[in-house]
């Protein structure tokens, strides 16, 4: 079975999600809130890589 890649549109959508997550983390008021937001984003990205 051959693995299908993302279309350009899907990839752009995925990047927009990452950018929104990073911008959201940047807007947090405390370092702890920012760290928590970044940890969640990293967890999601790692899960995406594992499939």
List its salient traits.
mainly alpha; 51 residues; elongated
Could you give a short description of this structure?
With 51 residues, this protein is mainly α. The protein has helices at residues 8-26, 31-50.
How are the secondary structure elements laid out?
Elements: H1 8-26, H2 31-50
Helix pairs in contact: 1-2
Biggest sheet, in brief? none
Helix content: over 70%
Structural class by helix and strand composition: mainly alpha
Number of continuous helical runs: 2
What integer is the average pLDDT? 89
Which strand-content bin applies to the residues?
A: under 5%
- The dominant shape is elongated
Number of extended strands: 0
Oligomer: single chain
- Low-confidence runs of at least 5 consecutive residues: none
Series of secondary-structure elements, N-terminal to C-terminal: HH
- What's the N-to-C terminus distance? 15 Å
Provide the gyration radius in Å: 14 Å
How would you describe this structure to a colleague?
The structure is a single chain. The protein has 51 residues and is mostly helical. The chain contains two helices and no strands. It starts with 7 loop residues before the first helix and ends with a helix. The relative contact order is 0.12. The mean pLDDT is 89.
